[in-house]
From TrEMBL, chain A:
Family designation: Belongs to the universal ribosomal protein uS7 family.
Cell membrane among keywords: no
Domain of life: Eukaryota
GO cellular component assignments: ribonucleoprotein complex; ribosome
Domain Small ribosomal subunit protein uS7: 79-232
CDD domains, sorted: uS7_Mitochondria_Mammalian (cd14870)
Keyword Signal tagged: no
Organism per entry: Vanessa tameamea
GO BP field: translation
Keywords associated with the record: Ribonucleoprotein, Ribosomal protein
Protein's UniProt name: Small ribosomal subunit protein uS7m
TrEMBL record, chain B:
Protein name (database record): Small ribosomal subunit protein uS9m
Matching Pfam families: Ribosomal_S9
Origin superkingdom: Eukaryota
The UniProt record lists the keyword Kinase: no
SUPFAM superfamilies xref list: Ribosomal protein S5 domain 2-like (SSF54211)
Basic residues bias spans: 379-402
Entry keyword set: Ribonucleoprotein, Ribosomal protein
A single MF term (Gene Ontology): RNA binding
Classification lineage: Eukaryota, Metazoa, Ecdysozoa, Arthropoda, Hexapoda
Family per similarity comment: Belongs to the universal ribosomal protein uS9 family.
A cellular component term, taken from the record's GO annotations: mitochondrial inner membrane
Region of interest (Disordered), ranges: 378-402
Length: 240, 402
């Protein structure tokens, strides 16, 4: 069955004699280069904890020794331990990105942040009393967090078919889906604009509006909540 | 490999030893029977009324199954001997071809020789030429599972997979025991010591192949899942540490990353400055080397340019990631040469190279922190190939009814 594997032809011998050991090494290296490599890490690899504050938390809760024995995945190409790294911002960049053009997406988001900063600094200088000045939030990332927090829906409507009629049944929403909807609505509201206005400008306005609990996105969220309230009578269809 | 061979030959030899005397004895018995019966037919017909020759001879006869097994075992033994002989000859041929000593030619050398003499770009590793000792190529076989009368030794013989089902049986029995033990503990209001508790992080269950090798039986996917489920339940019980030995038989430790063992000592140049060079920094298609010079000012040189070699911010952040993490950003100088791949791959390769080189300049706590941050793990992932019949590696054509 495997006899042919044990025997070696005479041609190979000639090849060996003509080649130098240096090319032998090169040959094996080249071969390894094109061997298949796994495209993902095995399940038992742990996610990396690459931020100092997260590691400090682990040390406090004494879970570090447990994790130290396990192999760890390398951090992704967009993750750093820098103070400028923010998971929500990288998530937002991925939502803005089209056709894998991350450079442009990042540029657009950063420009929007710049616009927010400009608008807020202007407001800061227009404010007359120190109390009013203290109220103005100058950090664009804080405004983004506030805006997303304000746009997150608490309930969702699920279409459920009962007796041939589709009812919009209110139900709870997962944290992940609520974050997804908030970012999606913010971007949808931004893209619903005049052609002459650019994305960063409009996005900055939308974020400022949402952070202030006003604007299209917050209205949309409140509409959903209102409809959920109106459809309370259908709630039992979720389990009946 | 060697171990495997030992086990194998042990199984076969043992059965032959057990079986051979029986066989020789049986032939004698058969002769006797023949003599008696011939006697009986010729003259003493009335003896038949006193002794039942047929049942007597049947009792001592070797069963058909045993005889068939003996034949098979003998055949297999001969086959393996032949394969071993051919393997040894093949090994000598290979050694001669490679110009090395055939006596000290090991399996490692064989693999190297086959790879060199039969270079193969075939995608599937299993389809590439190989030469392995026959014990590895041909699966091990079980010894006789029944006695000479044909009766099975094992009480689960008729399940077809006695070892596997015995294992499931044992697990269940252990679980029942643990329930009883737990009740007893509650009744006596005892408190178990924290130190005794079972800690199984750092090891995984045996894979299907490993389990099959251990049991010498084929196991289906469903059966393997059942095994894992049962074992998981056993482990989840509060007093599972009682069966620690039993559980650990079916777990394999994960390869721990021993970063601390072989940290290189930095070399010194003519000015007395320490430096460490990491070669073969790989990520995606990028390859390069990174040199870290110890008393430095945080100057980074990539292919003769500074950090602006990378046009996008993300790649620049990646390069300085390990420096920021360890707080060495203005204590060392970095020089790297990198080629191949795109900005993401190149920056990833440099990131790993810097982290790997910094091991020589940081303390042990920081090393552990770097390990936990995954900076010392090499990212070996590569682009997955496109498959024929579909538009991408995983993407399938749009489904159409007709």
């Amino acid at each position: 069955m495997s006899n042919f594997r044990y025997k070696v032809g005479p041609i190979a011998k000639c090849v060996f004699q003509t080649q130098s050991p240096r090319s032998n090494l090169w040959c094996t290296l080249m071969q390894y280069r094109f061997y298949p490599r796994p495209t993902s890490f095995p399940d038992y690899f742990q996610n990396p904890i690459f931020r100092k504050e997260d590691q400090a938390k682990l040390i406090e809760s004494n879970e570090l020794t447990k994790l130290a024995a396990l192999p760890v995945k390398p951090p992704a190409a967009y993750e750093t331990s820098s103070v400028y790294h923010d998971p929500l911002v990288s998530k937002l960049i991925n939502h803005v990105m089209k056709m894998g053009n991350k450079k442009l997406a990042r540029n657009l988001v950063e420009k929007a942040f710049e616009n927010i900063k400009r608008i807020q600094i202007e407001r800061y200088h227009l404010a007359t009393t120190p109390e009013e000045k203290a109220k103005v939030v100058l950090n664009p990332k804080d405004i983004l967090h506030k805006a997303v927090e304000n746009s997150k829906p608490l309930l969702q409507l699920l279409p459920i078919k009962r007796g041939g009629i589709t009812y919009q049944v209110p139900g709870p929403i997962t944290e992940k889906r609520s974050l997804f909807l908030a970012i999606k609505w913010l971007l949808e509201a931004t893209n619903d604009k005049e052609r002459t206005i650019h994305f960063p400008e409009q996005f900055a306005w939308e974020l400022l509006d949402a952070a202030n609990n006003t604007g299209k996105v917050v209205k949309r969220k409140q509409d959903i909540h209102r409809q959920c309230e109106a459809n309370r009578a259908y709630a039992h269809y979720r389990w009946q | 490999m060697f171990l495997c061979y030992n086990k194998m030959s042990f199984a076969i030899k043992l059965t032959l030893k057990q079986a051979l005397p029986i066989a020789s004895r049986s032939s004698i018995i058969l002769q006797n029977v023949y003599n008696y019966s011939s006697k009986a037919t010729s003259q003493d017909n009335f003896y038949n009324n006193f002794t039942d020759w047929e049942t007597l001879s049947k009792k001592k006869k070797v069963s058909k199954a045993m005889r068939a097994y003996l034949e098979r075992a003998k055949e297999h033994d001969e086959f393996m001997k032949k394969q071993q002989f051919e393997y040894n000859i093949g090994k000598r041929h290979l050694a001669n071809m490679m110009g090395e000593d055939p006596e000290t030619f090991t399996q490692k050398d064989v693999d190297r020789a086959v790879e060199y003499l039969f270079p193969s770009g075939i995608y599937d590793r299993a389809a590439r030429p190989l030469m392995k000792p026959p014990e590895e190529v041909f699966p091990a076989r079980k010894a006789a599972e029944f006695d000479e009368a044909g009766w099975p030794h094992h009480f689960l013989f008729y399940t077809g997979k006695p070892n596997f089902f015995k294992l499931l049986y044992d697990i269940t029995e252990n679980i029942q025991d643990l329930y009883k033990y737990g009740d007893k503990v509650i009744r006596k209001k005892e408190v178990t010591d924290e130190k005794l508790l079972l800690n199984i992080t750092g090891s995984v269950w045996l894979t299907k192949d490993q389990l099959e090798q251990l049991l010498v039986e084929t196991v289906t996917d469903l059966e393997y899942d059942n095994f894992k489920l049962a074992m998981d339940r056993l482990v989840s019980l509060p007093h599972s540490h009682i069966y620690k030995d039993f559980i650990e038989k079916f777990r394999k430790p994960l390869a721990t990353q021993r970063f601390a063992l072989e940290i290189p000592k930095p070399s010194y140049d003519e000015n007395g400055n320490a430096f460490v060079t990491t070669y073969e920094c790989l990520r995606k298609k990028a390859r390069g080397d990174v040199t870290i010079k110890s008393p430095g000012t945080g100057k980074i040189t990539i292919n003769g340019q500074d950090l602006t070699y990378f046009e996008d911010t993300q790649s620049r952040e990646q390069v300085i990631f390990p420096l920021i993490f360890t707080g060495m950003q203005d204590k060392v100088d970095i020089v790297c040469n990198i080629e191949g791949g795109g900005p993401s791959g190149q920056s990833g390769a440099i990131r790993w190279g810097i982290a790997w080189g910094l091991r020589s300049f940081v303390d042990k706590d920081m090393l552990e922190a770097m390990q936990l941050a995954g900076l010392l793990t090499r990212d070996h992932r590569r682009r997955e190939r496109k498959k024929p019949g579909q538009p991408g590696a995983r993407k399938k054509p749009t489904w159409k009814r007709r």
